[in-house]
Write a structure and sequence with these properties.
Layout lengths: L3 E2 H8 L3 E2 L4 E2 L1 E2 L9 E4 L16 E4 L10 E3 L3 H12 L14 E2 L4 E2 L4 E2 L4 E2 L4 E2 L4 E2 L4 E2 L4 E2 L4 E2 L4 E2 L4 E2 L4 E2 L4 E2 L6 E4 L2 E4 L5 E4 L4 E2 L4 E2 L6 E4 L4 E2 L4 E2 L4 E2 L4 E2 L4 E2 L4 E2 L4 E2 L4 E2 L4 E2 L4 E2 L4 E2 L8 E3 L4 E2 H10 L3 H21 L5
Parallel strand pairs: 4-5, 5-6, 6-7, 8-11, 9-12, 10-13, 11-14, 12-15, 13-16, 14-17, 15-18, 16-19, 17-20, 19-24, 20-25, 23-26, 24-27, 25-28, 26-29, 27-30, 28-31, 29-32, 30-33, 31-34, 32-35, 33-36, 34-37, 36-38
Antiparallel strand pairs: 1-3, 2-7, 21-22, 38-39
Length: 345
């Protein structure tokens, strides 16, 4: 891809430019950037790398603008570096139009500029909005609705009746609308409870590779607009997730739990079923949630407790053997003292 003038990048990102103009051919880390690449500093921990970087320019906060030859000055360097990346990122795929090797049911309705790669399957009564793209191996079951500008990467699966909003990204191998885990133990064995509900995603939702969002038993499993779901995440049946939440890799949310807006569930969080988690809740890595959590809490550990309590417990944990030995010796000393001086009746 052809380079861009640093001044043009500054204009497109609406960032002040400090220093002379230069041609930018790409983006890279502070350590790896060359003389025609743009980099960024988001974490002050790495500010000592500014003096040694070979980058042509660096996106930095105002207090670091004087530490480099050329700077794009930003209040949020990480976000703006992401915007700069988008200027240089090559799009995935090159196919345009509907491949004759795709299977498209005649009752499906596709906007004129939808792209369907070879070997995708689109079932009866599916509706797909303008500018959406389906890569090879995608399965879109009957009565699905896909909004405008949404991308389904290879082997993404939408089972019957799934609704996906505008501007969503469904990564390879993600499955939306598989049956929820509904079973009943009977004298004859374990019997399946039919799952006849749906899955509905709002706008600008991202679902990572090999993640699963199960259909509801009767109603709808919902993911609110702007929420981002990482790879290898399991969302159970009838779960409701609010807007602009982050669900990180290997998290599992059990059925019928409600999660509010602007929440963050870090890696390997486990949430039991039928719980209520409020807005603006952060759950640290491997947190185990077995009770409702009100809004505006930061919690960690398993079972999850207030983050301050959890961090103090972590700090004390290496001392537990020593503290146990000390407690045992105190108990023995007290027992010996009581034996020598028994209490009078």
């Amino acid at each position: 891809m052809a380079g861009r003038a640093l001044s043009e990048i500054a204009r497109l990102l609406n960032l002040p430019l400090k220093g002379e103009d230069v041609e930018i051919a790409g983006v890279n880390t502070l350590e790896g950037a060359g003389p025609h690449e743009l980099s960024f500093l988001a974490n002050p921990k790495y500010s000592d790398q500014l003096a040694a970087t070979g980058a042509a320019a660096v996106i930095v906060r105002p207090e670091h603008a004087g530490d480099v030859r050329r700077a794009l000055v930003s209040e949020n360097p990480y976000r703006d570096f992401g915007r700069a990346l988008a200027l240089f990122a090559a799009p995935q795929g090159s196919w345009r139009g509907v491949s004759p090797l795709a299977s498209v049911d005649p009752t499906a309705s596709l906007a004129e500029d939808v792209t369907v790669y070879p070997f995708a399957f689109i079932g009866p009564r599916v509706v797909i909005g303008a500018g959406s793209v389906l890569f090879p191996g995608c399965y879109v079951g009957e009565d699905c609705r896909i909004g405008s500008g949404t991308t389904l990467y290879p082997n993404a699966v939408l089972m019957a009746g799934v609704e996906v909003g505008d501007g969503c990204i469904i990564h390879p191998g993600a499955v939306l609308g598989a049956d929820g885990f509904g079973f009943a133990r009977t004298a004859a064995g374990i019997e399946k409870i039919p799952q006849v509900g749906r899955v509905s995603l709002g706008d600008k939702v991202e679902v990572g590779a090999n993640s699963a969002i199960d259909r509801a038993a009767l109603d709808t499993t919902r993911v609110g607009s702007g929420t981002k779901i990482d790879n290898l995440v399991q969302i159970g049946h009838n779960v409701r997730i609010g807007q602009n939440s982050l669900i990180v890799s290997q998290t599992g949310v059990s059925g019928s739990t409600r999660i509010g807006d602007n929440c963050t569930l870090a890696g390997q969080v486990g949430v039991a079923g039928h719980l209520r988690i409020g807005d603006n809740v952060t759950l640290g890595p491997q947190a185990g949630v077995a009770r409702d959590i009100p809004s505006n809490r930061v919690m960690g550990g398993s079972p999850a407790v207030d983050q301050g309590t959890y961090m103090r417990t972590l700090a004390l944990m290496p001392r537990f053997p020593e503290l146990f030995r000390r407690l045992s010796s105190v108990e023995k000393a007290l027992a010996a003292q009581n034996a020598e001086h028994p209490k009078e009746d």
